[in-house]
Structure formats: structure tokens, C-alpha cells
Amino acid sequence: MSISHPPIPNFVRSAERSLWWLAAAGAATSIILGVVALAWPGETLYVGAAIFGVWLLVHGVINLVQAVTATREDGVARALTAVIGVLFLVAGVICLRNLVVSLVAVATLIGLSWLIGGIAGLVAAFTGTYEAGGRFVVALLGAITVLGGLVVLIWPGPSLATIVWLTGIWLVVMGAMQLLLVFRHRPS
Description:
Keywords: Membrane, Transmembrane, Transmembrane helix. It contains 6 helices and no strands.
């Protein structure tokens, strides 16, 4: 005795096809962006720096609007939000006026975050409740992260170029894998 399934409505099939096309477009976009990053790494860095500057401007405006329109009575919090907004705006203008400054700022943020994260990993390795093998792995990861942070802080230009290359390779590989999966699951 076979069980018959009810027919799939047309709007469900249409939605499946639309989602499939969106997934295919996303995978293809990853591949294209990866190829662009690999073909023009310097230009990719400058575009990233410009986007970082715009991001700072947008967040500056958002903070200022929040400070002005906040309904809470806490004047100190509103003033602090406004100051942060102004700082974001100033930083955004500086970054957009000089993209090299923006690149140095991005490299510094990456280097500092890796350095601080690595130090935190080392501290956790020796103060946490890890078994001997786990302690070694956490300490090793912390030490590698500290070294990575120092490399980025000492040599920001080559580090950013390497990050662009690795990101380009990652985008191409991930996009190709996603595209493969999308075509394996093409709706009928």
C-alpha cells in the first residue's frame, strides 16, 4: 500500500525556485568578489578602507540621532552617546580624506584584537581548569594569536595584503562549494 502525497502548490514551487536562484547568485557573488580581491588586492584594500570610513560616518550619525532622540532622562548617557557619535564622525572624515590612515587603523584594530585575544588565551590556559592536553592546545593557540597580532602591528602593509589574498582565496573556495551544493539541490 503506497501513501500518496498531496500535490505541492504552485506558490511553494515558485518560492523554492526563487530561493534556489538567490542561493546561486550568492555563491556566484562570492566567487566574483574573491576573483576581484585576488586580481586587484591593492584596490580591494582601498575600497575596504573607504567602506570602513563610511561605516564610521553612519555609526556616528546613528549615535548622534540616538543621543538627541533618546527618551531616557539620563543626561550622562545621552552626552556620552553624543560624544561617541562625534568621535565616529571625525574618525570617518579622517579615514575618507586619507585612506592610508584608514588602512593603518584597520590593521591596528586587527593587530590589537589578536594580541589581546592571544594574551587572554594564554592567561586562560594557565589559570583555567584544563587538562594537560587542553591546556597545551589553548596555550599554543594563544601564543600563535599573540604572534599574529604582533606581526600585523609591526608589518601592517604586508599583513593587510596577506589578509586580502586569504580572503580572496576563501571567497572563491567557499563560493565554489556553495555553488556545487546549490546545483546538487536544484528544485524540480
